[in-house]
Amino acid sequence: xxxxxxxxxxxPAMRAGDVCGNGSPxxxxxxxxxxxxxxxxxxxxxxxxAVSPLASDVPPAILGAQVRSLLLETDPPLANGRYVVxxxxxxxxxxxxxVTAVIERLGDDIIWRDFAWQTAPLPDLERNGYHGIGPxxxxxxxxxxxxxxxxxxxxxxxxxLLIGARAxxxxxxxxxxxxxxxxxxxxxxxSDAMPDELMTYGAVAFGRGxxxxxxxxxxxxxxxxxxxxxYVIGLAPITPLLVAQLEQALDRTPPAQRxxxxxLATPDEARLTVGATCRVRLTAYRLDRLxxxxxxxxxxxxxxxxxxxxxxxxHVLRGESFLVARTTGGVITTAxxx
Length: 338
Fold this sequence. Notes:
This protein has 3 domains: 8-152, no CATH class; 157-236, 3-Layer(aba) Sandwich (Rossmann fold), CATH 3.40.50; 251-338, Immunoglobulin-like (Sandwich), CATH 2.60.40. 21% of the residues lie in helices and 36% in strands. Strand 2 (18-19) and strand 3 form a beta hairpin. The protein starts with 7 loop residues before the first strand and ends with a strand. It has helices spanning 60-70, 125-128, 140-152, 167-179, 195-198, 212-224, 239-250, and strands spanning 8-15, 18-19, 25-26, 29-36, 39-40, 82-86, 98-106, 109-118, 136-139, 159-163, 183-186, 201-206, 230-233, 260-265, 269-274, 278-287, 293-303, 306-311, 320-327, 330-335. It is globular. It has a 4-stranded antiparallel beta sheet with strand order 6-7-8-9. The chain is of the alpha+beta class. It has 7 helices and 20 strands. Helix 1 (60-70) packs antiparallel against helix 3 and helix 4 (167-179) crosses helix 7.
């Protein structure tokens, strides 16, 4: 084992939820990712749809138990000193598959080694081991400080406030958000709301028909409460598009660590910048003259880091159109510019 030390830290990350075409929801999950030598560990393990045990949407007692486990203050949850590093975002069943590793103390150091994909009580290291990952040697004081700080940090605000004139659109959007694990409330006037209540919102979404003076009044109410949510003006009354916009607004992942970093589009071409190798789905939404919604999948492929030019069919994207790019770790939206 190398004597060289690796740096250890934590950074916010997100597993983007989705309202799937068959009606089944894919949960939105906020969590803290492990940052090893300045780079999120999840990005070093290929394109996994997984979250760490340090989820932000679990009760404090459960989060505290996970932190104490990683600090080696409790017995290992798996045989042979193995710990779950990343697991299924939808459940905690090992049968779904998990990235596990041996975590142990060696003198004043913490060692993470023998990473593997595990679906049974014991992993097959030869067949399913991550042979290019680790072992990592961390200084125990740096390791402990990062994990203990997590218990002192304020949890992310995962509720959104919806403000608009079209009750049917707001109702559908609120139901879709709740189905993927994001709290949603509908309001028109927040001037009398208690500051503690306003502090619980991570984003505020305005419908396109909300006048500027009403938007300003809402912003002023949040400013008086010393709350600073992300403000979103809905691109169009299309539920999956608005869900994607709000997930993008709630994403606390540092920009340098995001898988999707930029999306621009004209009727002929989309330009998508990818920060790490990942599978990307690019979906086009269009409103016709009768305000009917048309949906078209234009890309489903694994992309390497860099800027990719994706040809588009101008006929498909005629009129008012939008694009949504999704990967397991993020979502990004844009209007098609003519």
